[in-house]
Amino acid sequence: MFMDKFFDKYLEEEDFINLSAEKLKKYGFEHNNTIAGVCLCRDEICQSVLLKIKNLWGDFFNFSSFAGIYSSGEIGAKVFISHAPDGEEKRVVFYVFTHIGLDEKGSIGICKRKGIEKSTACGALILFLNEILNFDKREKEENPELIFIKQKLRKEISNRTPDLMELTKIALHVSCNEIERTMENLVKSDKIVYALVSGIQVHYLDKNYILPMASFVVKDNKKIDLR
Ligand SMILES: [Zn+2]
How far does residue 68's CA lie from ligand 1's centre (Å)? Predict the structure, then answer.
């Protein structure tokens, strides 16, 4: 398949979510004792994965933001954890995604939408790139969420200008780090076991695929790689 030219490993969304649940089961995460939280881009073409997560884990907590960068802070994580089923410990799993388009000609960042033959994704990351490259001369966006996201990304890239694929990976890394840092504080005071499962959604033709990225479980201050 065409995707093979670009990516070593990718899965259909449903397979990715099923596989993650299988792996998490070995560490005691089950439908009845776990709540899932999801952090992905607000973009409508990303939302298909939610149904798969809901089918496996039940109702989920939604952390979504522009570009899918975690921006809910400690308070968001605390509320989420407090909604986890009662038990010996609170069990939560974060699903974290950023996303990118790919068309049949191999153009990165290009995707289809309902009624739109040629569109782009991720719009928020492309906006950010255009700002760095100074293509975008419009008045700067004052939306607080976008300001937060751009600050985080600028810190990470310092003076470089990554391409869109690299920026998509950086954005995911920023998001996962943000969650890990937030959780570091919270697991100190409460009995919490958490997992983070991350990937990049690729919109190719009319379907979404996921490139698996860092995934781990944190239990008793130990980080266990899920891959
Ligand atoms: Zn997006």
Answer: 7
